[in-house]
Amino acid sequence: MLLILASSAVSCTLFMNQRSPKGYVRYAVSVLDRNGLYADRPEWQEVKAAILAEAKTFTTMDQAHEAVSRAAKVAGGKHSALVPPVADTASYPEVAPEVKSLDGNILHVVLPFHTGVKVPDSLYIHTVLDFLHEHLDAKGVIVDLRGNTGGNMGPMISAVSPLLPDGIILRFKGRTRTTPISLESVLRGAGLPADGVEKLPSSTPVAILTDEGTGSSGEATLLCFRGLDNVRTFGSPSAGYASANITKFLADGYMLLITIAGDMARTGEVFCEDPVNPDVNTETPLEDAIAWIESLVPCI
Question: What's the predicted TM-score (pTM) here?
Answer without folding.
Answer: 0.90
